[in-house]
Specification:
81% of the residues lie in helices and 0% in strands. The chain is built from three helices and no strands.
């Protein structure tokens, strides 16, 4: 059973790292959007390609605030934090119990 515990621990760690990295990509994209970046810059294009599918889904469901402020990055970060606290923590606890 310890092998299953180790596998679950590894999955939880990898998932936590991926969520953490994606959260930082969203933060960087939000910060860059404040300075009106060059849309042809490869870094800006990468950030848009990686984050736009998630942020557009949130924008479609929530809408843009009354003054035109885009709350989708904040909501996405909160969702990521929820997944880290609920799903990843549960996987880690389950892995410890299996050991």
């Amino acid at each position: 059973m310890f092998i299953a515990g180790n596998v679950l621990q590894a999955i939880a760690t990898i998932l936590d790292t991926i969520l953490w990295l994606y959260m930082w990509v969203i933060i960087i994209r939000a910060l860059i959007s404040w300075v009106n970046p060059d849309p042809w810059n490869p870094i800006v294009q990468f950030l848009d390609r990686v984050t736009e599918p998630v942020l557009s889904q949130i924008r479609r469901r929530v809408g843009i605030g009354g003054m035109g402020f885009d709350f989708s990055p904040i909501i996405a970060i909160l969702i990521i934090m929820f997944f880290q606290m609920a799903v990843v923590a549960s996987l880690k606890d389950l892995a410890l119990r299996i050991h």
